[in-house]
Amino acid sequence: MKGKEITPKRLDILRRQMEREKLDGFLVSSPQNRYYFSGFTGDYGFLLVTETRNILFLDSRFLEQAKEECRGWEVIQFQRFHQDFSSLLSEIRVRFLGFESQKLSFFDFKELERNSPGVHFVPFPHLLEEIRGIKEPGEILKIREAIRIAEESLGEVLKGGLIGNREEEVSLELEWKMRLKGAQKAGFDLVVASGKRSALPHGVASPKAIGKKEFLLFDWGALKDYYHSDITRTFFTGSPSKKQREVYLTVKEAIEETILQITPGRSILEVFQFALSKIKNSPFKDFAFGHGLGHGVGLEVHEWPFIGPRSEGTFQPGMVFTIEPGIYIPGWGGVRIEEMVMVAKNRVEVLTSFPREISVI
Amino acid sequence: MKGKEITPKRLDILRRQMEREKLDGFLVSSPQNRYYFSGFTGDYGFLLVTETRNILFLDSRFLEQAKEECRGWEVIQFQRFHQDFSSLLSEIRVRFLGFESQKLSFFDFKELERNSPGVHFVPFPHLLEEIRGIKEPGEILKIREAIRIAEESLGEVLKGGLIGNREEEVSLELEWKMRLKGAQKAGFDLVVASGKRSALPHGVASPKAIGKKEFLLFDWGALKDYYHSDITRTFFTGSPSKKQREVYLTVKEAIEETILQITPGRSILEVFQFALSKIKNSPFKDFAFGHGLGHGVGLEVHEWPFIGPRSEGTFQPGMVFTIEPGIYIPGWGGVRIEEMVMVAKNRVEVLTSFPREISVI
Fold it and tell me: Cis before residue B305, ω within 30 degrees of 0?
């Protein structure tokens, strides 16, 4: 009964947006948005939402599954997607169709357009992502659960002796622990990056053995009930050098002060600039993170809102996102600390709780 | 030294195609094609191939990684993809740019087009996939290894008592075994479907406990060195009923006779029709597979060529693909058998070797 977890509120919000944009239909094609609105977990399929109808448009492989999962949805089977979808549009007289322009391929767009004379295709690059960016209480519970699983699992992994083990062995053990605790899978390719590799912002676990007196960076998370967690901690595999300690404390101070800057209504861009300036005003200014400061987390591990130099808008109640400043010194090592933060009506809560003090393992 | 495994032959083939199509540049945007031509394993980035240059176009996160992985490639960093890529096109005077039209989003296309006056964007829905569809010997070795890991792992899982265990526990154990044998991960969400659930063509492992005298269908595979395996077997958890046995033997006969039909140069469509007619001429004609008969396997678990009612062309030496007929009786159960097949110059080899006799576990 997965479908029961999909609230009707989501479709109401979409329909209000459609009304405002003068659309009489919306084509939903990306897996996460399809799941968000319908509860359908299959690999392939499309939603057509109109003023009065919820249509799940599928090939034969997924009919039985959809009937189980998607209460309140008409299931219509297609043979050839482009032709049959165009016929459906014509049959139910859709004239202005919104679509996900960052997700639909150029090819699908062209084929649909060619087969649908008289239909206006109206691109929306992130309308559905913005709706999804404001989490419902039920979603936040799932994210909390994904965080709990990830944090407990890393805690257990750290109790073993890690020095001498290969990064990829440690990654496998961490994923295994998360899955035994009920995760569907790891939320993404886990980063276990030791020594110089900690300077790679995306250094997924490699065959390198973890050495002594190194940085050891974990960027890890779980997928639980289709929701993600995404956390980073950097440890020391021996008493840190003066420089290692300084780099670490610079990042720690940056994230702590940055989180205090976040309030409902605060400009996202300003918070990014604040965090970057903290590093730029440190002795490590040449090695400040070149990636964004953070991103929304939910059905996707990286989703709207993105917190970076081109952010617009303000923090809104219901947003759940990461804050993850870092310092990366090529050929030497790096430090990143990543927390997950929720904005509520009158407060800001750090959802992650793994200690961020200097920790020698 | 991952880059060493990327043969220059691939780029030669692409350049010959570009010459034939009168293109002076090709934009590669999908992860698998990016890896295939450059060896780059990062999450995000673009290739621009011209007559004389191999350019990897990346944001700051991946610069170090690319320099390690991609010998023979110029690495150019961008800040804003659409604007900076358009400037690059203008700088090196690309006028006819091929692109992957089934992969590039409508949004990216529009932004590139808007920023690139004078450049003609020429869509190719599956040109790169066709190049990748003809495997090199080194790729076939990796696929064989992905098959070996998957088959050995299932063999070990079946030795344990499975009745009473939940499908998802069995799936986790199978993945764990594959990873201990060196798989990067499971090749896809593994299907472990027992009883009635075996009638779901995509019934990923659920909390259902495996019962007695049921069908138990595994659709499983490994990812090893970025190459996939994809195999299906259906077992019995107790002595099969007459009908269960009949359904099974119908599928078994269909796949065995179908594989004998495959030769280099044989029409792909005809082989599909042959397999379907085998089931349509059985007592289970109303329950024949509605999915394709098979698909290429390589860097993607489902890739070109697709073997179905709209297939064109013929089987070519170097193709590696699945053959997977099935019978699905809703509410009762189903059987699918899936083999991986390679076409060579003068012969056809079934790469998978797991027994397909009736097997009670």
Answer: yes
